[in-house]
Input
Amino acid sequence: MGPDLTLADLKFVQATLSGYTYLQSQEITMLKFIGILAVVAICVILILAAMKPSTFIVERSVSINAPPEKIAPLINDFHSWDIWSPWAKLDPAMKTVYSGAPSGVGAIYEWDGNSKVGKGRMQVTSIQPAKLHQTRFPQAIRGSQHRRLRP
Output
Protein backbone atom coordinates (compact mmCIF):
# COMPACT_ATOMS: atom_id res chain seq x y z
CA MET A 1 0.00 0.00 0.00
CA GLY A 2 0.90 3.65 -0.09
CA PRO A 3 2.90 5.52 2.47
CA ASP A 4 1.27 6.16 5.78
CA LEU A 5 0.61 9.84 6.38
CA THR A 6 0.44 11.11 9.88
CA LEU A 7 -1.61 14.01 11.15
CA ALA A 8 1.59 16.07 11.42
CA ASP A 9 2.32 15.44 7.73
CA LEU A 10 -1.15 16.60 6.72
CA LYS A 11 -0.87 19.76 8.85
CA PHE A 12 2.52 20.52 7.25
CA VAL A 13 1.04 20.17 3.73
CA GLN A 14 -1.93 22.35 4.68
CA ALA A 15 0.32 25.06 6.16
CA THR A 16 2.54 25.01 3.06
CA LEU A 17 -0.39 25.32 0.66
CA SER A 18 -2.06 28.09 2.69
CA GLY A 19 1.24 30.02 2.59
CA TYR A 20 1.17 29.94 -1.22
CA THR A 21 -2.42 31.13 -1.24
CA TYR A 22 -1.47 34.03 1.05
CA LEU A 23 1.41 35.06 -1.27
CA GLN A 24 -0.82 34.82 -4.33
CA SER A 25 -3.47 37.01 -2.73
CA GLN A 26 -0.79 39.63 -1.87
CA GLU A 27 0.39 39.65 -5.51
CA ILE A 28 -3.18 40.08 -6.74
CA THR A 29 -3.75 42.93 -4.26
CA MET A 30 -0.54 44.64 -5.46
CA LEU A 31 -1.55 44.26 -9.12
CA LYS A 32 -4.99 45.76 -8.35
CA PHE A 33 -3.30 48.70 -6.59
CA ILE A 34 -0.96 49.32 -9.55
CA GLY A 35 -3.90 49.10 -12.00
CA ILE A 36 -6.01 51.56 -10.01
CA LEU A 37 -3.03 53.91 -9.70
CA ALA A 38 -2.51 53.82 -13.49
CA VAL A 39 -6.20 54.56 -14.16
CA VAL A 40 -6.14 57.50 -11.71
CA ALA A 41 -2.96 58.89 -13.34
CA ILE A 42 -4.53 58.69 -16.81
CA CYS A 43 -7.69 60.42 -15.56
CA VAL A 44 -5.65 63.24 -13.99
CA ILE A 45 -3.73 63.75 -17.25
CA LEU A 46 -6.96 63.84 -19.28
CA ILE A 47 -8.59 66.32 -16.88
CA LEU A 48 -5.54 68.61 -17.00
CA ALA A 49 -5.48 68.41 -20.81
CA ALA A 50 -9.18 69.28 -20.99
CA MET A 51 -8.57 72.39 -18.88
CA LYS A 52 -5.97 73.81 -21.31
CA PRO A 53 -7.10 76.40 -23.88
CA SER A 54 -7.72 75.18 -27.42
CA THR A 55 -5.54 77.94 -28.92
CA PHE A 56 -1.91 78.76 -28.43
CA ILE A 57 0.50 81.53 -29.32
CA VAL A 58 3.98 81.09 -30.69
CA GLU A 59 6.07 84.20 -30.43
CA ARG A 60 9.52 84.99 -31.78
CA SER A 61 11.46 88.18 -32.17
CA VAL A 62 14.51 89.29 -34.08
CA SER A 63 16.39 92.57 -34.05
CA ILE A 64 17.36 94.04 -37.40
CA ASN A 65 19.75 96.95 -37.49
CA ALA A 66 17.67 99.07 -39.88
CA PRO A 67 14.86 101.60 -39.55
CA PRO A 68 11.26 100.30 -39.99
CA GLU A 69 10.87 102.39 -43.17
CA LYS A 70 13.50 100.23 -44.91
CA ILE A 71 12.13 96.89 -43.67
CA ALA A 72 8.40 97.51 -44.16
CA PRO A 73 8.50 97.36 -48.00
CA LEU A 74 10.25 93.97 -47.85
CA ILE A 75 7.44 92.60 -45.68
CA ASN A 76 4.46 94.32 -47.35
CA ASP A 77 5.25 93.06 -50.85
CA PHE A 78 5.19 89.26 -51.22
CA HIS A 79 7.19 89.61 -54.46
CA SER A 80 10.24 90.63 -52.38
CA TRP A 81 10.01 87.71 -49.92
CA ASP A 82 12.39 85.56 -51.96
CA ILE A 83 15.15 88.00 -50.99
CA TRP A 84 14.92 87.25 -47.26
CA SER A 85 12.56 84.29 -46.69
CA PRO A 86 14.25 81.15 -45.33
CA TRP A 87 11.48 79.08 -46.94
CA ALA A 88 12.54 80.14 -50.43
CA LYS A 89 16.03 78.77 -49.73
CA LEU A 90 14.63 75.42 -48.50
CA ASP A 91 12.99 74.79 -51.87
CA PRO A 92 14.32 76.88 -54.78
CA ALA A 93 11.89 75.05 -57.13
CA MET A 94 8.85 76.03 -55.02
CA LYS A 95 5.88 77.20 -57.14
CA THR A 96 4.46 80.55 -56.05
CA VAL A 97 1.33 82.39 -57.15
CA TYR A 98 0.67 86.05 -56.38
CA SER A 99 -2.88 87.38 -56.55
CA GLY A 100 -5.07 90.08 -55.11
CA ALA A 101 -3.50 93.49 -54.57
CA PRO A 102 0.09 93.88 -55.85
CA SER A 103 1.25 94.57 -52.28
CA GLY A 104 -0.16 95.57 -48.90
CA VAL A 105 -3.68 94.78 -47.69
CA GLY A 106 -5.37 92.22 -49.93
CA ALA A 107 -2.14 90.80 -51.36
CA ILE A 108 -2.21 87.00 -51.54
CA TYR A 109 0.73 84.62 -51.69
CA GLU A 110 0.27 80.91 -52.44
CA TRP A 111 3.03 78.31 -52.49
CA ASP A 112 3.47 74.64 -53.27
CA GLY A 113 6.83 73.05 -52.55
CA ASN A 114 8.66 70.05 -51.24
CA SER A 115 8.02 68.39 -47.87
CA LYS A 116 10.07 71.05 -46.03
CA VAL A 117 7.92 74.00 -47.13
CA GLY A 118 4.61 72.29 -47.88
CA LYS A 119 1.64 73.99 -49.49
CA GLY A 120 -0.28 77.01 -48.27
CA ARG A 121 -1.75 80.45 -48.72
CA MET A 122 -1.27 83.79 -46.94
CA GLN A 123 -3.18 87.02 -47.23
CA VAL A 124 -2.23 90.43 -45.84
CA THR A 125 -5.14 91.56 -43.66
CA SER A 126 -3.88 94.86 -42.21
CA ILE A 127 -0.90 97.16 -42.15
CA GLN A 128 0.01 100.09 -39.95
CA PRO A 129 2.84 101.71 -41.89
CA ALA A 130 6.23 101.10 -40.28
CA LYS A 131 4.57 99.55 -37.19
CA LEU A 132 2.49 96.41 -37.73
CA HIS A 133 1.96 93.90 -40.54
CA GLN A 134 -0.67 91.14 -40.19
CA THR A 135 -1.13 88.13 -42.43
CA ARG A 136 -3.68 85.34 -42.24
CA PHE A 137 -3.28 81.65 -43.09
CA PRO A 138 -6.80 80.54 -44.01
CA GLN A 139 -6.01 76.88 -44.71
CA ALA A 140 -2.49 75.81 -43.88
CA ILE A 141 -2.19 76.77 -40.23
CA ARG A 142 -5.54 78.42 -39.48
CA GLY A 143 -3.87 81.29 -37.76
CA SER A 144 -2.40 84.69 -38.25
CA GLN A 145 0.98 86.36 -38.08
CA HIS A 146 1.78 89.75 -36.69
CA ARG A 147 5.02 91.52 -37.51
CA ARG A 148 5.75 94.52 -35.31
CA LEU A 149 8.29 97.03 -36.54
CA ARG A 150 9.84 99.16 -33.82
CA PRO A 151 12.42 101.87 -34.33
In short: Residues 7-51 form the longest helix (45 residues). The helical segments are 7-51, 68-76, 81-84, 86-90. The first strand starts at residue 95 and ends at 100. The chain has two domains: 1-52, 68-148.
